[in-house]
Amino acid sequence: MPAMSTPVPATPRPEPTDPSMPAAAAPVRKPRVCFVAPQAWATFSGDTKHSVAGGAEVQVSLVAEALAKRGYDVSMICLDYGQPDGAIVRGVRVYKCYTPDEGLPVVCFIHPRLTKLWAAM
User: Structure pTM?
Assistant: First the structure.
């Protein structure tokens, strides 16, 4: 596996040469990123009571933390395992949507899963 390179610091924005041009604008805010990863809470937070973990959960956790360290506004939507809504873990705000066993079979895909996921976004 190749080693990760260190980030290169941003170069300052050049000043305009034409005096009729406005001064350099304020720095551009980095975009917001939201991961929808229902099973990632245990992997991301280190919660050992819920051991649902796989490659996707590990990957999302690593990418979310790396983006947060680089100054992005990162959030994640996970299942409700009893964590507080909007908890900040390693620089990432984690919102909860629904409990893993919530709802009636077959119907639970629409409500509460789809409706609560939409509300969390």
Answer: 0.68
Q: Is residue 95 part of a domain?
A: yes
The pLDDT tens digits of the residues spanning 76-106 come to 999 998 899 999 999 999 999 988 888 877 7
Domain count, the chain: 1
Cα(61)–Cα(39) distance, integer angstroms: 11
Q: Is pLDDT above 80 for 27? A: no
Is residue 112 included in any domain, yes or no? yes
Domain residue limits at 102: 32-120
Q: Burial of 76 by CB count in 10 Å (0-12 exposed, 13-18 middle, 19+ buried)?
A: buried
Pick from 108, 105, 84: which is nearest to 96 by CA?
84
Q: What is the pLDDT of residue 62?
A: 94
DSSP per-residue string spanning 80-115:
-SSPPTTEEETTEEEEE---TT-S-TTGGGIIIIIH
41 part of a folded domain: yes
Q: Which helix (H) or strand (E) holds 119?
A: helix 115-120
